[in-house]
């Protein structure tokens, strides 16, 4: 039994969630190899080779992989998959897009978004937006699995020295073509990995009012999230969306402001360690998952919150 | 151009799902069911493309028990031309669903296939990508904007880092995000008309596809409950609790 993990990166650096996926993958089997597919990815391979849990790095370098098109990635993964019992990847948009294409060609019924490794063939995964947990056993010989990264700790990044081998690339398929990527640049911590997240919902009433949230996020060094309602209303861009169809976050502190707490939003944040809800509707469902609820008008509460934070001598970063 | 739209019947998104006491699944008896929400976006987009004169026919297809026909009827009521119901009982995994759809594609020869990016029941997010693989077609997943060109589609995708735009050659598969469009409601006259539109029924067994699950569902349980929290009376109290009790700031 050996596990092959497909690394997510941007051709320069490893994406942080690959480290969480490495932790999960090494719980499936200690013999963990990582496949790095991209363009000019020597630095990526080198940093992965230094992760202690990784036994071998396989690098496939070609310009056809620069933009991570699933159509081009799949053939080379299939080729490499031969000697492995498990093909795994993190369950973010990269892995969600890629893994089923691989699984179908291997004639494997994929297990998506696992949150716990029970044994080499049995896993725990959330269904119905996390309202139920299913224990599932895969009977396929070769297993394709995506891993919910926030359910596993990131692997340490130094101390290892795995061998890096270079493998041949496949043909380009020409089925699809990359045009552009619009990344939102920010100095804030990433939403998926931030220690503190403060999110606004429809109750914010406008994009302009999100400055109340921004001010507190600055003070707490927090990432900014949003409910789907706030994104749909155009208050904030989609990369901030937390929920069943957005991002899943598990920060130490999640502050929900003007968010009623639809099932779909709760699916993205209810595993947070401490949840604070600020809402003027005392009956809002968000209060049922909140450790600390404050029934108040957010337009009064947020400026007061900032004022109280300013009074503190120290704030954890 | 012909568009095939796949729709799935699921527990309505507003229903608070309950786990069965015997751990075999969730309660579906006497629970409101409806079309998987992003599948509605897929139907809407197909109808818009047809209205713009860029498609001739829309075929809505569903897989499931008899009642799954409701989702096809709904698609017919908002503008699909005809429907196909593939009858199968019990759990059908995305791999089996995509193999069934592959058979339908062989027969119908559509130029485009649209479906939701994820079903809100099993949250698998697999079928579109799997079908694309089996057909060796390009895939544009998590689409929030689709532009139909001469022999291709330009699709904007919702990805973790923001937005990505790709071009896929036709024939292609698109899986739709909720942000793609605002699905219309069916008018009563159109609901009546939809009852007269053709709806073909096919038994999955007759397609020669092995639909036997490969994954055993051993147990379904409720997630651990959060312990009840408290209400605080002021912002000052909240900050004090976060600092001294929860120790998170």
Explain what the structure shows.
The complex is a heterodimer of chains A (317) and B (249). Chain A is α/β, with parallel strands linked by helices and 317 residues long. Chain A folds into two domains: 3-166, HUPs (Rossmann fold, 3-Layer(aba) Sandwich), CATH 3.40.50; 196-311, Rossmann fold (3-Layer(aba) Sandwich), CATH 3.40.50. Chain A contains eight helices and 16 strands. Chain A has helices at residues 16-28, 42-49, 70-80, 93-105, 210-220, 228-232, 263-266, 298-311, and strands spanning 3-6, 32-38, 56-61, 86-90, 111-114, 116-117, 122-127, 132-138, 143-147, 163-166, 176-183, 196-200, 223-226, 253-257, 274-279, 292-295. In chain A, the strands form three sheets. Chain A has a seven-stranded parallel beta sheet with strand order 5-9-4-1-2-3-10, with helices on both faces. The mean pLDDT of chain A is 95. Chain B has one domain (2-244): Rossmann fold (3-Layer(aba) Sandwich). Chain B has six helices and 13 strands. The longest helix of chain B has 15 residues, at 37-51. Chain B is globular. Chain B starts with a strand and ends in a 5-residue tail after the last helix. Chains A and B meet through α3, α4, β5, β7 and β8 of A and α3, α4, β7, β8 and β9 of B. β8 of chain A pairs antiparallel with β12 of chain B, so a sheet runs across the interface.
SSE arrangement:
The complex is a heterodimer of chains A (317) and B (249).
Chain A: E1 3-6, H1 16-28, E2 32-38, H2 42-49, E3 56-61, H3 70-80, E4 86-90, H4 93-105, E5 111-114, E6 116-117, E7 122-127, E8 132-138, E9 143-147, E10 163-166, E11 176-183, E12 196-200, H5 210-220, E13 223-226, H6 228-232, E14 253-257, H7 263-266, E15 274-279, E16 292-295, H8 298-311
Parallel strand pairs in A: 1-2, 1-4, 2-3, 3-10, 4-9, 5-9, 12-13, 12-14, 14-15, 15-16
Antiparallel strand pairs in A: 6-7, 7-8
Chain B: E1 2-7, E2 9-11, E3 33-35, H1 37-51, E4 57-64, H2 69-77, E5 82-87, H3 94-108, E6 112-116, H4 127-135, E7 139-148, E8 152-159, E9 162-169, E10 172-176, H5 188-194, E11 199-203, E12 215-221, E13 230-232, H6 235-244
Parallel strand pairs in B: 1-4, 1-6, 4-5, 5-11, 6-10, 7-10
Antiparallel strand pairs in B: 2-3, 7-8, 8-9
Helix pairs in contact in B: 2-5, 3-4
